[in-house]
Each structure stands twice: as structure tokens, then as C-alpha cells.
Amino acid sequence: MRLISDCVFLMDRKMASHIVGYPRMGPKRELKFALESFWDGKSAAEDLKKVSADLRSSIWKQMSDAGIKYIPSNTFSYYDQMLDTTAMLGAVPSRYNWTGGEIEFSTYFSMARGNASVPAMEMTKWFDTNYHFIVPELGPDVNFSYASHKAVDEYKEAKALGVDTVPVLVGPVSYLLLSKPAKGVEKSFPLLSLLDKILPIYKEVIAELKAAGASFIQFDEPTLVLDLEAQKLEAFTKAYADLESSLSGLNVLVQTYFADVPAEAFKTLTALKGVTGFGFDLVRGTKTLDLIKSSFPSGKYLFAGVVDGRNIWANDLAASLALLQSLEGVVGKDKLVVSTSCSLLHTAVDLINETKLDDEIKSWLAFAAQKVVEVNALAKALSGAKDEAFFSANAAAQASRKSSPRVTNEAVQKASAALQGSDHRRATNVSARLDAQQKKLNLPILPTTTIGSFPQTVELRRVRREYKAKKISEEEYVAAITEEIKKVVELQEDLDIDVLVHGEPERNDMVEYFGEQLSGFAFTANGWVQSYGSRCVKPPIIYGDVSRPKAMTVFWSSKAQSMTKRPMKGMLTGPVTILNWSFVRNDQPRFETCYQIALAIKDEVEDLEKAGITVIQIDEAALREGLPLRKSEHAFYLNWAVHSFRITNVGIQDTTQIHTHMCYSNFNDIIHSIIDMDADVITIENSRSDEKLLSVFREGVKYGAGIGPGVYDIHSPRIPSAEEIADRVNKMLAVLDTNILWVNPDCGLKTRKYTEVKPALQNMVSAAKAIRTQLASAK
Ligand SMILES: *[C@@H]1O[C@H](CO)[C@@H](O)[C@H](O)[C@H]1NC(C)=O
Ligand SMILES: *[C@@H]1O[C@H](CO)[C@@H](O)[C@H](O)[C@H]1NC(C)=O
Ligand SMILES: *[C@@H]1O[C@H](CO)[C@@H](O)[C@H](O)[C@H]1NC(C)=O
Ligand SMILES: *[C@@H]1O[C@H](CO)[C@@H](O)[C@H](O)[C@H]1NC(C)=O
Ligand SMILES: *[C@@H]1O[C@H](CO)[C@@H](O)[C@H](O)[C@H]1NC(C)=O
Ligand SMILES: *[C@@H]1O[C@H](CO)[C@@H](O)[C@H](O)[C@H]1NC(C)=O
């Protein structure tokens, strides 16, 4: 008897709650280690499958225990959900020699990672997240077939564990819109014309899911938040009309995320045939709220994504509940489902065993596991069973975050508020500054330099680790790092490089190094987020107003400068990059946090100048990466991002030379913003896409500052010859003035070996010298 009543109670507890998707890696990155061990041949496929099944089962159990009604399945992946869809459709590019049948690990992982005999498929960013997906390669000759039963298998697997799940599929239209024409297929090939070929496979999958007992199914169609033209929107109408009869008898959710859904797309979406529920990101998509209030179709389910899947902050439950109650008035009590704004894949996994954060900061946070509990608490509250204790604890945490002196620093708030709406530029223009700098630096034409880091040896990592763990003393640490810098300086002098770097042996990471020394940052032990495949990143958390208690780099930079007469670059990470590679506050606009970081970096720049450093590089690797999804928001972003960069160096003398470095070359569309950064010298990744970068100058854009397009690719172990490098430089000279061109590699040398770095730099310097001689004799 007891059992039965418990059961009934359990069912009643399942309020209308839904999770869009869940992280796969596990709380301790179990999947990462299982994958890498399998790839290294150290464990069997069965071991990998076992770890994965255990992770899935614990996730389902966790959501079920929390009381979630609509629990997703098929959001697990051995690598990526787009690649899983490619496998489901049998769309394996021919170079993998797949001959049909269910797709096995060997084919799947060769598509994902390549191997000694075949390259991987291309990977690109998943919308504006830091997750990367494997881009499908399609064309008229692809032989689609139902070749991976993963969605059905995972549904059955959960069911066998007693959990009835909502299987999640990447929707057919988003799948095609995110594909690219395969090699050899015309660039203009209409990918959407393949709908007719893939829908029959979707129908097979749907039929099998139905047969297995599924009653609810979710299609992720995130492309609906993009700026889509009418013909692309029509594809949604067509696809779901075609699927309608297969979907009959099922509840069907079409899920969007990452931004608001534009009005036209909203109209198309809510009119789709066969669809009974619509999911929206109500954290980033606040404009969607107006559309819902004015024109949400009656009788349909609204999946309201109020718990943010993109950050690590605890939800403001009282505010969310008020919003949900207002939506209840719009769509009806029994049609409202509480959900996450997107898959929780984009946040950290579980706060429970986090060891590096103190209790106060922890009380402000929620990782994926905690967000699941928040969703359920909101759903329960809506249904009248509000957990008062949980809500008041949450309210207390929200209040403590608002009033904590660790969050607010009035001086910083004032200083950053004063920056808004005004312009900050160095008083003298760049050509006059370059003249002043040249008088002081006296560099040859085509000056040579490197980007910053030198090879990081096992020994160096050991020294840093032991110092952190207090196993070696500060004196021992300083001696070891000093020794390393000396080596790097001597090497560069031997190579006859003109502007030197200290090699950054003291740094683990270009953001963490600064975050650890700034106020307002916290670091986790296990706050990992999947970036691609088994790769995870652990972004710092910016929780408070940012300031710089003391100089961060002056000690090492001046030590390095004292070892040489040549200019030694001070090396800093720029505000936009620090911002973009962190979890950012949600209680003030992004630009405000960025201005605060800019002010901290400005202090550092000025201290470096005072210490006699004449060349300072401020890297903005992420400037372009940070562009918002929607074009309409680009100008606003670029404006404050570029302004933040200028703030860092507005106060220095003309004779101090500011460099910046960018890790991409495809910046033709934002070239005017790059110029507006007003750096004295910019070094850019270039060698992997030569023509792209130079074409912008060929098309007549005037660039007066110094520029160093990378002359060789450091991502490859290959050593370029001097002739090859000279060729590249000559190509650049055809479009850029001799007196602004710099000669440097593409990127930092951290990941390379000295046996590769030495000859490559040697060839780079001799190429520069040969061209100098050539130019001198041509005069
Ligand atoms: C590389 O991948 C292909 C395609 O999956 C496979 O046939 C081949 O055996 C793999 N080669 C190696 C060395 O793993
Ligand atoms: C595919 O088959 C061709 C012809 O047998 C072979 O040359 C090639 O190496 C194979 N590719 C892979 C990735 O195994
Ligand atoms: C930086 O921000 C952009 C846009 O939001 C995003 O696409 C990118 O992945 C971010 N980078 C990191 C490392 O989070
Ligand atoms: C599709 O099948 C045909 C006939 O078997 C074959 O010629 C073609 O190469 C296949 N296409 C791809 C992309 O594998
Ligand atoms: C947290 O730590 C406890 C005690 O070591 C352990 O039993 C539990 O499984 C851990 N939870 C997670 C999610 O890692
Ligand atoms: C830059 O400033 C110098 C000195 O003030 C001036 O002579 C020159 O015309 C300016 N150049 C440009 C491009 O504005």
C-alpha cells in the first residue's frame, strides 16, 4: 500500500518542468578521461560505453529525483550533437570510406578528429557560445540513410531505468542551415533542397520512437533566432507540414534559444503544423515576451526558458515566478512549462563538491545540477506548492549579492560611469606617434618580433605547479623563472630579433594570470564547460567590481628589460578578451564590466611605462569572437569594445608604442573598428588565409599604423624556409607600405618545441634581412 501511495505522490509532484539539455562531461569530466583513454588505445570501446551509460543514468536519475517532468534524452554525445545527426542521416563524407550499416566508433571519431590517413571534418562555433560543432558537408550526391539509432537507443535505455524522457533531435531545417557544401560542390548549392531527402529518415526515427513508447519529442531549431530571409523561413513551414502525419499522436516541442525570435520567425514558428509546444529563451530573448503576450497561439504549450543556461548565477526566483505568473495569464495555467533558456551544456556541471569557492560566493551561484532544482522549484511554486524555505534562502542570497562589499566598490563604479558617453583617444595621431617612437626606438625597416610566449617545457610547468602548492620557496621560484627569461632573451639576441619578449614562463593562461591578480574574480576547481569533443575550459567568474590592487606584470617585465638593450615588450591581455573568456556578472551590462577591466589594465600600462617599458602589447584575441549573434547589435558592441581598448592606453606618452595582437585574420568586415582601436602596431594571424587578410588592403582600405601579418603558421610543426617567408613578405609589400610592415609569426610559440622554434625564427630573421638589403639596393 505504502508503495502505491508513494508512487501517486511522486507523479503528482511532477509539475510542468522541462530541461532543454544537460552537460555530458560529468561532474569530474569523467567522459573526457574515458574518451581520451579510448583514443590513446589504453581502454576498450566497452569501457567508454560503460562510463557513458553511467553518466546518462545518473543524469536522468538526478532530474527525475528533482521532480522534472520533461527530461531530455539524446542530449548525451560522444563528441557533438550535430555530428550525431550527421551519423543518424548517414551523411558520411566519402573520404571516410564508410560502406553502410550502423555507424561505429571508428568512422564516427575519424569524422570528428581525423587520423593519420584522413583529415577531420571542419569544426565551428555553435552560435555565440564557446561550444564548437562538426559542420556537415553536404551536396546533391550524398546518399542519406538511417545509420545511427542513437536517439531511439537512448530513449529505450532511459525507459528501462524507469524514466520516460523527451528525445531531442536537431531539427531538420537547422541541421541543413548549419551545413556547408562539401568539397567539389558548388558554393551556391541550395542546401535546403536536401530537405526532401532527409525528412524520410526523420520519419523513420519518429516512427521508432513512437513504437518505443515516446509521447513527447523535441526538435531544436535554434536557427530561428538568426536573421533569416523569407525563403529560409518557408523551409520550416514546408518541413513540419511534411512531418505532420508522422508526428500525429505525439506532443511536439520546437525549441529555440540564444536570442529573441524575430517577429517574422515567430509568426512562422507558431504556425507550424503538427507542433504543440514552443520553447523560448526568455533570458536573452526579452523581446520575445512582447510577441508571446500579443500573439501566442491558443491551446499550445509555452516552454518558458527563465533559468539561464549560459551563466553560473543563481536564478532570481521571485522575479522569475512573477514573470511566469504573468505568462500564465496569457497562455493558460495548464499550458505553461517552466524551462531553461537553452541546454545546460553551456554552464558548469555541479556546484556541490566545488572546493575553491567560499560559502558566500557559492550561495550566489547555480551550476547545471542546481539549475535543475531551480526549474522544479519554480514549477512547484506555480502550481501552488511553493517551497517557502527554498525561496527565502534564494531571496537572502540575492540580497547578500546585492549588498555585499565584495561586489561593490564605489570608486570603481564612479570611475567607470564617468567613461560612458565620452570618447578617449591619445592626443596625437598615429603617424605623428610612430615618428616619435621611431626616434626613440631606432628600429630597422621591417622590424622583427614575436607574439609573446616561448615554448612551455614540462620543467616550467613543474616549477609553477610546485610554487603554487608551496613546495618550493618564492626565492627558488623567482630564480627558476629568471633563469628561463634569461635563456629566452639570449636566444632572441642571438637570432638578432629587434623587439624582444620575455616568453611568459610565469603564466599559465592569458586570462587566468590576470584574473588571479585582480579584485572581483573568483576561480573554481571544477567549473568546466565543454568547448569541443573532450576539450573543456574553466572560465573565471567575475562577481564584483574589478580593480587592480597592485602591479601585475611590472616585476617580470622590468627584470627582462634589464637583461637587454633592445626594447622588451610588456605583455597584457586586453579588457574585451578578459571579459569574453570569463563568466560575466548579470547584474550590470557587459560594457560596464568591460570598462572596469579597462581601467585596471590602464593602471598596469601606466606602471609599465613608468618602469621604462617602451613597447606594450595589449592582446585582444577575442575582439571579433565577441560579436553578438544579431547584426543589429554589432555596432553597439564594437563601439564599447573598441572604446575599452583605447581607454587602456589613453594616458601614455607618444613615444610609448602600443601593440595589439589578434588571433584571426577574417576581420575584413570590422576593419574600420580595428583601425579605430588606434593601436600603433597590430600583429595578426594570417598565414592560414593569406589572401583574405591582404584583400582588404588591396581593396583600398587605408591603414596607417604598423602591421605585422603573421609570416608563418605556428600551429604546425613544419619549419618554413627563409625563401618561403620572404615570398610572403613580398606579397604583403605589394599592398602595404614598407615603413609600416612588421615581420613576426602568427601567434605565441607556447605549444611548440625549441627544435622547431629556433630554425623557424632564424629563417624569419634572414628573410627580413634579405628583403631589407634588396630594398636598400633598389633605392
Ligand atoms: C582512419 O579512418 C578511416 C575512416 O574511418 C579508417 O578506415 C582507418 O582505418 C583509420 N586509420 C587509422 C590509422 O586509424
Ligand atoms: C579509402 O580507400 C582508398 C582506396 O582503397 C584508400 O586509398 C584510402 O586510404 C582509404 N581512406 C581511408 C581514410 O582509410
Ligand atoms: C566569446 O564570446 C563569443 C560571443 O558571445 C562566443 O561566441 C565565444 O565563444 C566566447 N569565447 C569564449 C572563450 O567563451
Ligand atoms: C552515393 O552512392 C553512389 C552509388 O553507390 C556513389 O557513386 C556515390 O559516390 C555515393 N556518394 C557519396 C557522397 O558517397
Ligand atoms: C561529492 O562528493 C561526495 C563525497 O566525496 C561524493 O559521494 C559525491 O558523489 C560527489 N558528488 C558529485 C556530484 O561529484
Ligand atoms: C597628424 O598630426 C600631425 C602633427 O600634429 C599633422 O601634421 C598631420 O597632418 C596629422 N596627420 C593626419 C593624417 O591627420
TrEMBL record:
L-methionine binds at I451, G452, S453, E504, D619. Zn(2+) binds at H661, C663, H672, D676, E685, C747. It comes from the Eukaryota. 5-methyltetrahydropteroyltri-L-glutamate binds at K32, N130, R535, C536, W581. Gene3D superfamilies: 3.20.20.210. Its EC number is 2.1.1.14. It catalyses: 5-methyltetrahydropteroyltri-L-glutamate + L-homocysteine = tetrahydropteroyltri-L-glutamate + L-methionine. Residues 17-330 form the Cobalamin-independent methionine synthase MetE N-terminal domain. InterPro entries: Cbl-indep_Met_Synth_N (IPR013215), Cobalamin-indep_Met_synthase (IPR006276), Met_Synth_C/arc (IPR002629), UROD/MetE-like_sf (IPR038071). Binds 2 Zn(2+) ions per subunit. It holds the Pfam family Meth_synt_1. Keywords: Amino-acid biosynthesis, Metal-binding, Methionine biosynthesis, Methyltransferase, Transferase, Zinc. Residues 446-769 form the Cobalamin-independent methionine synthase MetE C-terminal/archaeal domain. One of its GO terms (molecular function) is zinc ion binding. GO terms for biological process: methylation. SUPFAM superfamilies: UROD/MetE-like. L-homocysteine binds at I451, G452, S453, D619. Pathway: Amino-acid biosynthesis; L-methionine biosynthesis via de novo pathway; L-methionine from L-homocysteine (MetE route): step 1/1. The active site is at H715. Its cofactor is Zn(2+). Catalyzes the transfer of a methyl group from 5-methyltetrahydrofolate to homocysteine resulting in methionine formation. Belongs to the vitamin-B12 independent methionine synthase family. This is 5-methyltetrahydropteroyltriglutamate--homocysteine S-methyltransferase. The lineage of its organism: Eukaryota, Viridiplantae, Streptophyta, Embryophyta, Tracheophyta.
